[in-house]
Write a sequence for this structure.
């Protein structure tokens, strides 16, 4: 239970960075931390004590492997999620650079003038 | 020791030694993804890392040319189309995303050619995509520098 | 093994707080990089070597990109006073989130007690069905190929968005100054 509570604290830190920081780069960092926390939550849900990686080594007993391995489904989903996080971060950095060029600032609260 | 384009001599020398190893590591991780940890996603990002290192170490002040950017975006689309084509060929054996290529001995390299080809498609796609994003950001950084009058 | 997990998690939380509260942007980016690398060690200990290796490599490239972006901003001086309202509102929202999350914890099994139900079927059939010794790759590329197709589409769109946003000649035909009209001069020149 303590483990889950710590994990929620980790989630909350990322959430706080996303909501309360005004610098655009800080907001990107907050979203990255939130991304890390969600990935960690999914992997932890699939963990079991003394579990091995879901990769059968050559010569390993199949039944024993199935009995000991951790859940592979969260791992498959998190693998795609991490790579999507890379693409999203690049998109956000591109937006931040454009904001920097057009408004000469990185303060998110300054960016309130709509322009066609 | 900052003679010529790119970073200092030490960085360029070390990059020249490491570049081939990083590239081969990325390819190996992707090709053996069905037997060991790794796969196309990791391999693609490792290959993109090698390309990023070459740009950072040897790149001039002008930034990468437009030809390179166009080639990389074309490769990105080609990887995605290759993935889709492999999935579509599944109709040969019945339905979408069927493992339609014959399989070999278990726990050897040739145990499943379908997954190996899928891994190669994803390697091309993710590697080119990550590198294209980096190229765009670097090129735009040069424009920002020129506008703000920084060296 | 358990104390290692606790230690790494506490390290992650402290590193994240440091990353968010640092004044210098470059230091923040490097702190996030440290958090990502510690996270990859945790993934490795949790029996997920695939995820650990992906996390390391992606973290390296993300930090490189963020440093390229942050090296131009350096120590950014915020032009306005920090407004108390948004900070307090953010803290209240975070506390609400924590409350709901703690309530949702009742539905989770205790840590380490996972019983894979669907995953069990995949583990049993992965090698016979696809020929992959690596069950994660079997699920990713064969059993659930549609997920990967969607993922490829998402990453193609995201990178396309970044490339289109940063086109070098986006504003040349309009031939207007880069500074937005209506911005006061002192803001425009910082």
């Amino acid at each position: 239970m303590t483990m889950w509570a710590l994990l929620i604290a980790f989630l909350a830190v990322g959430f706080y960075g996303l909501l309360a920081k005004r610098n655009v780069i800080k907001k990107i960092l907050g979203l990255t931390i939130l991304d890390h926390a969600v990935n960690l939550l999914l992997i932890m849900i699939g963990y079991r004590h003394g579990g091995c990686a879901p990769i059968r080594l050559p010569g390993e007993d199949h039944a024993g492997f199935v009995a000991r391995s951790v859940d592979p489904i969260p791992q498959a989903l998190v693998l795609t999620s991490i790579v999507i996080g890379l693409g999203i971060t690049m998109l956000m950095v591109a937006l931040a650079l454009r904001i920097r060029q057009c408004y000469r600032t990185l303060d998110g609260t300054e960016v309130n003038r709509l322009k066609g | 020791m900052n003679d010529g384009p790119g970073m200092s001599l030490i960085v360029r020398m070390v990059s020249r030694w490491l570049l081939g190893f990083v590239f081969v590591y990325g390819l190996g991780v992707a090709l053996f993804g069905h037997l060991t940890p790794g796969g196309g996603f990791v391999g693609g990002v490792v290959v993109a890392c090698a390309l990023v290192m070459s740009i950072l170490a040897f790149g001039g002040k002008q930034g990468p040319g437009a030809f390179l950017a166009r080639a990389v975006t074309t490769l990105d689309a080609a990887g995605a189309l290759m993935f889709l084509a492999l999935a579509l060929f599944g109709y040969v054996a019945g339905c979408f995303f069927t493992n339609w290529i014959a399989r070999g001995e278990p726990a050897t390299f040739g145990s499943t050619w379908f997954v190996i080809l899928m891994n190669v498609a994803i390697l091309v796609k993710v590697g080119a995509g990550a590198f294209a994003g980096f190229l765009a950001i670097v090129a735009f950084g040069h424009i920002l520098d020129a506008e703000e009058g920084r060296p | 093994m358990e104390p290692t997990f606790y230690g790494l998690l506490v390290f992650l939380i402290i590193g994240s707080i440091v990353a968010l509260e640092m004044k210098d942007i470059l230091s923040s980016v490097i702190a996030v990089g440290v958090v990502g690398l510690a996270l990859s060690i945790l993934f490795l200990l949790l029996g997920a070597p695939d995820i650990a290796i992906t996390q390391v490599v992606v973290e390296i490239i993300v930090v490189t990109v963020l440093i390229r972006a942050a090296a131009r901003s350096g120590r950014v001086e915020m032009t306005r006073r920090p407004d108390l309202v948004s900070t307090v509102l953010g803290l209240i929202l975070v506390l609400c989130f924590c409350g709901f999350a703690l309530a949702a914890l009742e539905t989770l099994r205790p840590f380490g007690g996972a019983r894979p139900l669907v995953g069990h079927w995949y583990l049993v059939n992965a090698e016979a069905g696809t020929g992959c010794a690596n069950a994660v790759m079997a699920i990713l590329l064969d059993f659930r190929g549609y997920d990967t197709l969607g993922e490829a589409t998402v990453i193609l769109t995201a990178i396309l968005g970044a490339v289109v946003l940063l086109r070098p000649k986006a504003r040349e035909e309009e031939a207007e100054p880069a500074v937005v009209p209506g911005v006061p001069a002192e803001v425009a020149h910082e």
Remarks:
- The interface with chain B takes residues 49-50, 52-54, 57-58, 60-61, 64-65, 68-69, 72, 127, 129-134, 136-138, 140-142, 145-146, 148-149, 152-153, 155-156, 158-159, 162-163, 165-166, 168, 178 of chain C (CB under 8 Å).
- Confidence is low (pLDDT under 50) at residues 180-190 of chain C.
- Chain C has eight helices and no strands.
